[in-house]
Amino acid sequence: MSEHNDGFETRAIHAGQDPEPITGAVITPIFQTSTYAQPSPGDHTGYEYSRTDNPTRTALQEALSSLEGAAHGFAFSSGLAAEDTVLRILRAGDHIVLGNDAYGGTFRLISQVVTRAGITWSAADLTDPAALDANWNPATKIVWMETPTNPLLTVFSIREIAEVTHKHGAKLVVDNTFASPYLQQPIAHGADLVIHSTTKYIGGHSDVVGGFAATNDDEWAQDIKYLQNAVGAVPGPQDCFLTLRGLKTLGVRMDRHTENAERIVEMLLAHPKVHTVLYPGLDSHPGADIVQEQMKAGGGMISFQVTGGIEAAKAVTTKTRLFTLAESLGGIESLIEHPGVMTHASAAGSPLEVPDDLVRLSVGIETADDLLADLNNALDGI
Question: How far apart are CA 67 and CA 81, in angstroms?
Fold first, then answer.
């Protein structure tokens, strides 16, 4: 059994993942079952129906909770399923403050779906905690932010935003998908709940969709556990198994993602077709001091803006050989996309609209020189 003070990589491999007691299987089995035998009515082993609990899911939840420093963790069938379940805690009349750069699916959920229940929202520039404090809406129950953000890679101070949020009796939710728990643990900096699309870096192989929420707040945990079962947006055991398998190599993969990204950033900064590079690991990044305080490294995500506007940006995404033109991120393979017409199309015309000359990269773990040549050739060709 992993101890709380074990290192990150040790916990990723061992936390919640003791050898299976009956057979001694070293890897957590796929408990492919919907129901469980009970010795007598209502007397069960802790498992009665797999929507409620499943041993493979329990292992995943315990492992990820350990990595985020949380007492409670809950796995879901997708990142948006996790977000939707957490937001069901709110009631009509409550208000959400959303950071002014966020994943398009999160924006769509909050602005178009959650509002049907009488919940309101507003966007805020969370680089200015004093402005958030001064313009506080007393109906606000949740401040929801990503850091680094998707796709502009803005960095917000978790500690400072948590202080403002808690001053007004609200809760702070931090989407930690871009950093992963290897590079950042938001709860340690004051967040009340951390959320992930485990589809991305945690799963890491572009072969499984999932989500996760973790908290130290006992009341929130009780609500989320109830809703996880009552709403039922849970992952199957095969999905949990694949996510656990990816989790075991998260540390070594994130190191390589970051190393490759740093080399690509250096090339982009020198390329004449690129006029802006957005990467948290840069000393020139506006949030560089915050990165030093709350992140281990800049990570594997890069966004950049090209000379020539939207047509040039779209063109570069079609000219790469190794960078695959596709949505999503965080896999072992490198991806390239145009956020304005792909992942963030739902934000067009809103306060979260992204620049039309923006290109987003998810840098994989391929040979760095090959990635550099591929991207350089694509940029030269626009």
Answer: 21
